[in-house]
Amino acid sequence: MLVDVNKYMQSIGFSESSPVRFFSHAECFQQVMVDGDAVITEVSNRYDMRKALVQTSTYWEMRHIGIEDRLQDDRVVLYHSGLPGGIRDSSTGIAQITGNAGLRAWNHCIGKGYVSGTVRDPDHDPDLYAVWNQVRDPSFALRTVALIHLWDAEGKPGGNNPPGGETVMRPMALDYNDQEIFQVLRRYQGWGEEAETHARQRMGLYYLCEKYNGISRNM
Predict the structure, then answer these.
(1) How confident is the model at residue 16 (pLDDT cuts 50, 70, 90)?
(2) CA nearest neighbour of 57 among 71, 72, 26, 36
(3) What's the pTM?
């Protein structure tokens, strides 16, 4: 799996390592597929969600982390420290989750009874910053990726959606077809041409993850 994922990423323009990206293929694979396997297996079983969905979204985002992402993170710290030059929110952590998306996904899933926790206010800076800091923890980030996928499938209320909104899909299931998988992966990133293009590329990664997960399930 390590070799095949690397070959696929190279085929779409990602070398094993890059001077403009912080993490190599090997580092992303270790963090997500190996170190994160227990958490990913847990949320997969709990939510009837293919492990490959969480693996794909997280690995993909981690491979993209670059200098600009770290600079944006520093600016978030400035903002919430009351210093000039800051911004309120950014995509952060191994899964590149914004405080706003993480907070809204958790709120949605708490409301649906999928998870327990405290509902927080996205317009309240301390609440937003608290979640922003939480999603910087790898284990919390992996759990949040699963909740974002549930939120996405249920129309992503309050999220970054197209003008007409997102449709509500059928409940998350292990038998999601390719189009449903594509929609979940696309909605994780957002909408528009770039999100569509990246989702098509993510599908190739998803198929590889699912291939090897299937081998593991049948051993």
Answers:
(1) confident
(2) 36
(3) 0.95
3-state SS, one letter per residue, for 130-186: HHHHHCCCHHHHHHHHHHHHHHHHCCCCCCCCCCCCCCCCCCCCCCCCHHHHHHHHH
* Residue 215 pLDDT level (bands cut at 50, 70, 90): confident
CA distance readout (Å), 150 to 5, 104, 108, 120, 191: 25, 11, 9, 18, 17
List phi, psi (to 5°) of 4: -65, -40
* pLDDT tens digits for range 59-94: 999 999 999 999 999 999 999 999 999 999 999 999
The alpha carbon dihedral of 204, 208, 209, 210 has a sign of positive
**Sole residue written with tokens 């198929």:** 207
For residues 87 and 138, give the distance between their C-alpha atoms in angstroms, rounded to a whole number.
Answer: 23
**Cα 11 to Cα 6, 157, 183, 201, distances in angstroms:** 9, 35, 23, 10
Which residues are CB-neighbours of 216 under 8 A, at least 6 positions away?
A: none
Q: Residue 66: beta bridge partners?
A: 21
